Amino acid sequence: MSLAARQLEENGIATLIMGCAKDIVEYCGVPRFLFSDFPLGNAAGRPKDLQSQAFSLELALKTLEAAPAARTTVQSPLRWSADPSWKLDYSNIARLPPDEIQRLRAEFDRQKEIARNIRETPARAK
Amino acid sequence: MSARDDDLGFAPEEDAPIPYIQRIHDYYLALGYPTPYRWAHYAEVPFQPLKKPAAGCRIALITTAAPYQPDKGDQGPGAPYNAAAKFYAVYSGDSSVEHDLRISHLAIDRAHTTAEDRNAWFPLPQLRRCAAAGLIGEVAPRFHGMPTNRSHRTTLEKDCPELLARCRADGVDAAILVAN
Question: What is the pTM of this model?
Fold first, then answer.
């Protein structure tokens, strides 16, 4: 998504990314970024929380309009949970037992093969 | 933090944005893949100021979510990672109607969220509400789906130009891209 934002921007279309992975988006370098410190998959607000979703999109639009320069990141003030311990879980190898690591490797190889098969099948026009 | 600093109101150390690049690097190394993924990275960043207030702009929504495909396995709330639901070509949809989009093909945080509410990653109804409220000029006639291809070259040379062409065809002033 960061690459797409950059290419649109280079061609005269202003962009804003809504995302939850601050380091990945900023490392790429994008024009405008609304960062929500939420678990991946909730870049547009908390699930089943209309107020949070409305607030997030309105903040995104304000950032789109008011960013003074490239690499503008605004961090949403919304919190996922008062307890920040959820942040310790994602892909945290220190929290995985050895047999689980073996299982994850096999699963990763299996999913990669599935993706390769789809990629190499002629795409249907949509 | 020493005990005497406890009254300063500092947040716990782990209460900071997750260092995904480091986590993912360590994760795949431990799984047995020694060649680290090379993340896209640029020193220069383009900037196109909005040419008019948002209230006068036609704005497109861009998503990495995929249309639900009943024959492609579990894509429902709480589904495990499902590569079968991936797509590898830009697609577009009519912004004026509802769409059943899913994110089971993406590396979302499955320990702490379940993808039960698509409005948390595909804010098309919210964008329509903002148009009705006059916060933006209008929603672009189509939204667009961006593939998540592991190949940066394919993204840059095939998918991004296709997305740009579609945005141009729709005369959009700006785009909101929602990552997963």
Answer: 0.94
